Amino acid sequence: MAAGLNLGYTVLYLQESAWAFPVAAVGAVLFFFVCARRGMLAEAGLWVFYFGYAVYGGFATAGDWPEPRFAGWGPHALSWVGVAVGTWALTRGLKRWGERTAVGLDAFTTVGSLVATGWMLAFDPVNWWYWVVIDAAAVVLYWRNGLRWGAALFVVYTLLAVEGWFNWLAWP
Which residue of 17, 101, 168, 170 has the fewest C-beta atoms within 10 A of its own C-beta? Predict the structure, then answer.
């Protein structure tokens, strides 16, 4: 159910539907419990942030959706440096807290997703390339943790991120 709701969120987001964010909020709550039960500490925490982003996104898009705006390559380069440093720091923390399964991958997908979500909520079209990389890594993370439906969801997410990029390129 969590995977289905989050897939629904993405499709609704691509259609600029106001229903995208409430659907995302419910899906985030469900995935929090799934990841926490599997010991994926960073991913579980990420779904808490996704719940908050869903609430924020619902208010930010009330009425008209903003026009996409490219921030420039400098801010994106700094974002990737931040992802690298954040991944390193979170990996160290997760190891101290006792996480043992794909710790670096869990940290990368979490930190990268937070940054990508920020760019998505800024309506910068480059966010789609963040998602291609992060979603592909999440496929491996979820598969390794025995969450086949989650892995399948992230395969679809990777493909939708590529589609999102091409949709933006065709945008008038």
Answer: 170
| E strand map for 53-142 | none
Distance CA 168, CA 131 (A): 14
Q: Please state the domain count of the chain.
A: 1
Secondary structure (DSSP) of 15-61: TT-TTHHHHHHHHHHHHHHHHHHTT-HHHHHHHHHHHHHHHHHHHHT
Chain-centroid distance, C-alpha 16: 17
Rounded-to-integer distance, Cα 171 and Cα 96, Å: 46
Digit-coded pLDDT (tens) for 108-131: 999 999 999 889 878 898 999 999
The SS3 assignment for 1 reads coil
Q: Which pTM value belongs to this model?
A: 0.83
The parent domain of residue 103 ranges over 2-169
Report how far residue 153's alpha carbon sits from residue 34's, in angstroms, rounded to the nearest whole number: 14
